[in-house]
Design a protein that fits this description.
The protein has about 130 residues and is of the alpha/beta class. It is about 40% helix and about 20% strand. It contains five helices and five strands, in the order E-H-E-H-E-H-E-H-E-H. The longest helix is centred in the N-terminal third of the chain and has 13 residues. It is globular and about 35 Å long.
Length: about 130
């Protein structure tokens, strides 16, 4: 394990409970502290400013999508690193053409994503 990232704190928000369980188990195995949420509103109400090293957000969720949650998190913490998970190219393109077009394309990760690929993305994002 890379000692630089040991004990980094990650929040994962995805409405699919099997995915959040997978992310939690995998990331904790690799030394990360992980909090997972299946409801974006719960994630927002439990968000701690200046606490997380990375937030991983699913884009398409009921009630509040990942971009809306991102906007609310940014109101509380302008420095936290965020990346977006998306399984839908159409949904990704639709939002990238609208108000979130300024977001760096490297912040978007396609799912499904394997364990090793996810770890590479997390290392890259945390180190930047």
């Amino acid at each position: 394990m890379n000692e630089e990232i040991k004990r980094k704190r990650i929040m994962v928000v995805d409405d699919e409970s099997d995915l959040t369980l997978f992310y939690r188990m995998s990331l904790e195995y690799h030394g990360f502290e992980v909090e997972t949420f299946n409801d974006p509103r719960d994630a927002l109400s439990n968000f701690k400013t200046a606490y997380y090293d990375l937030i991983i957000l699913d884009i398409k969720m009921p009630g509040m999508d990942g971009f809306e949650l991102y906007t609310e998190i940014r109101k509380k913490d302008k420095k936290v690193k965020v990346c977006f998970l998306t399984a839908s190219e159409l949904y990704y393109k639709e939002f990238r053409m609208k108000e979130y077009s300024a977001l760096d394309k490297s912040l978007f990760v396609r799912k499904p994503i394997g364990n090793e690929e996810m770890l590479k993305e997390i290392y890259r994002l945390i180190k930047t």
